[in-house]
Amino acid sequence: GAVVSQHPSRVICKSGTSVKIECRSLDFQATTMFWYRQFPKQSLMLMATSNEGSKATYEQGVEKDKFLINHASLTLSTLTVTSAHPEDSSFYICSARDGGGQFFGPGTRLTVL
Amino acid sequence: KNQVEQSPQSLIILEGKNCTLQCNYTVSPFSNLRWYKQDTGRGPVSLTIMTFSENTKSNGRYTATLDADTKQSSLHITASQLSDSASYICVVSGQAGTALIFGKGTTLSVSS
Fold first, then answer.
1. Are B103 and B35 in contact (CB under 8 A)?
2. Nearest-CA distance A95 → chain B (Å)
3. What residues 26-85 of chain A have any CB closer than 8 A to a CB of chain B?
4. What is the pLDDT of residues B24-78, one digit of tens each?
5. A34, β-bridge pairs
6. End-to-end CA separation in angstroms for chain A
7. Cβ distance B80 to B63 under 8 Å?
8. CA A13 to chain centre
9. What 3 state SS string does chain B have?
10. Taking the CB of residue B106, how many other CB atoms lie within 10 A of it?
11. Chain segment A2-44, per-residue pLDDT in tens
């Protein structure tokens, strides 16, 4: 089946720094990629939807200036958490869609100290 | 409002036993329903996907059912194994191109 990778799998950073998370579709081209955030014992919450070559569409309540999304190619999308704070600590999961379905990455655990 | 409700919230069973997880949804229009398994600290992995016309679909020891009339689905796990311990998430898709709607998941713990 289709494989989606994320890097890094885990990151710990100091408050105020920026963190970039990469999401790649390894064996298919994804015209649409999604970024989710998941807090402990909660369901996945959609943050934004990005289409290759265009600006991302953010869900209500998600700050676009804080969570920068770039979808520069059909196989790569990046999420940058700018000026991270402890409340941004969470599990970030990307997902990529092709004609056959939607596939999830393994997630990135972000801890902001 | 489009919603997906799962029950029970958590479940503990003995290894080798069977169990059934429930999913009710109010999403309309309906495109498909998926069950995912999410291990702790990992991304969701697809188990089954069913469209409106499908009533049942199996994937090894996992069997999903769908009743589109009552808007209910179940996931039956047969002869549970310790590795089945995970969160099982029901996800419903509305019209093509719209966002997936996630249930909160059922946390299954299989003990020896």
1. no
2. 9
3. 34, 41-44, 46, 49
4. 999 888 889 999 999 998 999 999 999 989 999 999 999 999 999 999 999 999 9
5. A49, A95
6. 37
7. no
8. 17
9. CCCEEEECCEEEEECCCCEEEEEEECCCCCCEEEEEEECCCCCCEEEEEEECCCCEEEECCEEEEEECCCCEEEEEECCCCHHHCEEEEEEEECCCCCCEEECCCEEEEEEC
10. 21
11. 899 999 999 999 999 999 999 999 988 888 999 999 998 888 9
Write down the residue that tokens 């958490």 correspond to.
A81
Residue A5 CB neighbour total at 10 angstroms:
16
Interface A-B: count of C-beta contacts within 8 A: 35
Mean pLDDT of A34-60: 90
A104 → closest Cβ in B41, B43, B99: B43
Question: What are the Cα distances from residue A103, in Å, to B12, B56, B60, B94?
Answer: 28, 21, 20, 17
Judged by CB atoms closer than 8 Å, whether chains meet at A106 and B43 is answered as yes
Residue A100 has pLDDT above 80, yes or no: no
Non-local CB neighbours of B47 within 8 Å, separated by 6+ positions: B34, B35, B36, B37, B59, B62, B64, B75, B88
Does residue B17 sit at the A interface (CB-CB below 8 Å)?
no
